[in-house]
């Protein structure tokens, strides 16, 4: 919580609820530390220079290097003093600075960050619908790392099951059917000489 701001109880509860929702959303990519209310669980820096953003994103590797910081604002805390005391300071930490504000205050947040030259890596809005909270990314600084997209599995073709003949293993290689050798062609038979037609009876009688 900002040292210059004391939120109403109801607004503080909503603020801390948003922090815990962001913690749950970020666990797949980061080790997440949160500092709800006046708690100081996850510092950035050492000693008296340590700061305590609402959410601290650490690398999942062994060194737990800080990958980014998140500040969550409510309707009352999107103002000139908060921008100078918190946003400007967090933006100088040499890690991406993410800012979450209520949807109704997006124009004020944009103007404050522009007027005070505060580099915001990602600017998000949130709005509540009953018990549900919806987050929407409205601005990303050029060069800011994009969230890793979940790769979609390529559609796989259905495997065609091959049935093996009865009595044979399914892994057995198919055997080729034996081919019959072609027999040499037989020589053609000679045609029988044509018989001469018999002389007619009239011709025989004349010879007599």
Strand tally: 6
End-to-end CA span: 153 Å
Biggest beta sheet attributes: 6 strands, mixed
* Shape category: extended
The CATH class of the domain at 9-140 is identified as Alpha Beta
Q: What percent strand?
A: 15-25%
How large is the radius of gyration? 44 Å
CATH architecture of the domain at 9-140: 3-Layer(aba) Sandwich
- CATH topology type of the domain at 9-140: Trna Endonuclease, Chain: A, domain 1
Uncertain spans: 147-161
Q: What share of the residues lie within helices?
A: 10-25%
Number of separate helices = 4
Mean residue pLDDT: 80
Q: Secondary-structure element order, as H and E? A: HEEEHEHEEH
Strand order of the largest sheet: 1-2-3-4-5-6
What structural class do you assign from the helix and strand content? alpha/beta
Give a verbal description of the structure.
Residues 147-161 have low confidence and may be disordered. With 208 residues, this protein is an alpha/beta fold. It starts with 8 loop residues before the first helix and ends with a helix. The radius of gyration is 44 Å and the shape is extended. Helix content is 23%, strand content 18%. It has a six-stranded mixed beta sheet with strand order 1-2-3-4-5-6, with helices on both faces. The protein has a domain at 9-140: Trna Endonuclease, Chain: A, domain 1 (3-Layer(aba) Sandwich), CATH 3.40.1350.
Produce a short descriptive summary.
With 208 residues, this protein is an alpha/beta fold. Helices cover 23% and strands 18% of the residues.
List the helices and strands and how they pair.
Elements: H1 9-26, E1 31-34, E2 55-58, E3 66-72, H2 80-91, E4 97-102, H3 106-115, E5 122-129, E6 132-140, H4 201-207
Parallel strand pairs: 3-4, 4-5
Antiparallel strand pairs: 1-2, 2-3, 5-6
């Amino acid at each position: 919580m900002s040292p210059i701001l004391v939120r109403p109880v109801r607004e503080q509860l909503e603020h801390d609820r948003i922090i815990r929702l962001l913690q749950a959303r970020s666990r797949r990519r980061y080790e997440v530390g949160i500092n709800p209310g006046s708690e100081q669980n996850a510092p950035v820096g050492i000693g008296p220079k340590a700061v305590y953003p609402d959410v601290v994103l650490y690398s999942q590797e062994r060194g737990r290097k800080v990958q980014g910081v998140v500040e969550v604002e409510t309707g009352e805390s999107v103002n000139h003093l908060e921008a100078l005391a918190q946003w400007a300071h967090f933006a100088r930490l040499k890690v991406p600075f993410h800012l979450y504000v209520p949807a109704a205050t997006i124009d004020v947040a944009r103007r404050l960050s522009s007027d005070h030259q505060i580099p915001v890596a990602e600017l998000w809005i949130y709005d509540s619908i009953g018990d549900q909270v919806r987050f929407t990314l409205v601005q990303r600084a050029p060069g800011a790392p994009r969230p890793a997209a979940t790769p979609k599995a390529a559609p796989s073709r259905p495997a065609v099951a091959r049935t093996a003949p009865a009595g044979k293993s399914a892994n057995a290689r198919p055997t080729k059917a034996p081919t019959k050798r072609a027999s040499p062609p037989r020589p053609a038979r000679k045609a029988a000489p044509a018989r001469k037609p018999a002389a007619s009876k009239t011709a025989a009688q004349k010879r007599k």
